């Protein structure tokens, strides 16, 4: 699937009719869930391909997502150098605290000077793409994000924009480049959710970007 083109802008919502949006949890719950996620990583119960020292554990973010079928809790651990700003490890837990899925997105610069994006689901690589997006440093991405968020995000659960990256940028209030990175990273996962395969596929991927923008899962899913 070409992540720059949306062929089914409202498929996910039509399939599930559930609007999923994230809500930050309290400090105590966040600490407990983060400790659980980090324990799974340190014990190799969760397989992470990035070097352990690159995990920015102090910047982890925990949120809850409440669809009709039960609550999910997501833990996002940003991944730093040698990878780009949007790199992350994300886990999705059910209301009983059982881990449903985890994803890893590693963003870097390829030899052509463009972004390269590798994605993993439950430890297995699902995609390794050389994009046509010109690479930007973390400082440049942060400036782009700050400018986008200062302008204000469009509050919507559906977009008619046929460019997936631009649609994601709009609904999450992130820069166009970050929107395109998310599009490349989550295309397969959110297409699966849109087809009714299972919400956690898309939740896990989008939750990974919770540290760079608001995360309305349905809003992003409808962009694919």
Q: Any overview of this molecule?
A:
There is one protein chain. The protein is built from 7 helices and 7 strands. The model is unreliable at 1-21 and 153-162 (pLDDT under 50). The chain has helices spanning 11-16, 27-42, 138-151, 164-172, 176-194, 199-207, 217-221; strands at residues 22-24, 61-65, 72-78, 88-93, 99-109, 114-121, 124-134. With 224 residues, the chain is of the alpha+beta class. It has a 7-stranded antiparallel β-sheet, with helices on both faces. A hairpin with a 2-residue loop joins strand 6 (114-121) and strand 7 (124-134).
- Can you list the strand order of the major beta sheet? 1-2-3-4-5-6-7
The count of DSSP E runs of length 2 or more, i.e. the number of strands, is: 7
What's the end-to-end separation, in Å? 9 Å
Question: Helix share of residues?
Answer: 25-40%
Low-confidence stretches: 1-21, 153-162
Please outline the major beta sheet: 7 strands, antiparallel
Radius of gyration: 16 Å
User: If you average the pLDDT, what whole number results?
Assistant: 74
Residue share in β-strands: 15-25%
Give the ordered list of helices and strands. HEHEEEEEEHHHHH
Secondary structure layout:
Blueprint: H1 11-16, E1 22-24, H2 27-42, E2 61-65, E3 72-78, E4 88-93, E5 99-109, E6 114-121, E7 124-134, H3 138-151, H4 164-172, H5 176-194, H6 199-207, H7 217-221
Antiparallel strand pairs: 1-2, 2-3, 3-4, 4-5, 5-6, 6-7
Quick description:
This protein has a seven-stranded antiparallel sheet, sandwiched between helices. Residues 1-21 and 153-162 have low confidence and may be disordered.
